Amino acid sequence: MSVINRKGWSRMSEPMPEGKSHVIPRQVVWDAWLKVKKNGGAAGVDGVTIGQFEERVKDNLYKLWNRMSSGSYFPGPVRAVEIPKKGGTRVLGIPDIVDRVAQTVAVMTLEPDVEKVFHEDSYGYRPGRSPEDAVRAPAKSVIV
Predict the structure, then answer these.
(1) In whole angstroms, how far apart are CA 86 and each of 67, 80, 82, 92?
(2) Which end of the chain has fewer beta carbons closer than 10 Å to its terminal beta carbon, N or C?
(3) pLDDT tens digit string along 108-144?
């Protein structure tokens, strides 16, 4: 797919398709799939692996895009896996491949705007920032 459609408009200014309540460019769904595929990972509760999802990738991504665009997408259940931790175990939730793609679409769409409102000293759950970065950051004095 090209970035410019045949009318010469960019995808971001593309008119909303009939019956769709959310504008989600199909290219974003494809790019999200590529990220999920690259990251790999286990199958979710439905048992579908990355390879199995890829066998019908166009159909799978179209269905996801259609549901997300129309507002009818709801994530499925997650597979609970116990992982060993110091002093016991912790339950880790493994979403289905389709839900991981949907989550990645949301991150790719929202993160650029949300990042702008974070304080520069915020480190939690930020791309390119880690707890180690926060510890290494110079202390700033605060006047109360």
Answers:
(1) 41, 19, 13, 15
(2) C
(3) 999 988 888 888 888 777 888 888 888 888 877 556 5
Cβ neighbours of residue 58 under 8 Å, at least 6 residues apart?
none
CB 135 within 8 A of CB 76: no
pLDDT at 71: 92
Q: Pick the residue with more confidence: 60 or 127?
A: 60
Question: Do 48 and 125 meet the contact criterion of CB atoms below 8 Å apart?
Answer: no
Give the contacts of 61 (CB within 8 A, at least 6 positions apart).
26, 29, 30, 33, 101
Residue 106 CA to residue 126 CA, distance in Å, equals 15
| Spatial CB neighbours of 99, under 8 Å, sequence gap ≥ 6 | 44, 75, 76, 78
Residue type, 32: A
User: How many whole angstroms from its chain centre is CA 6?
Assistant: 28
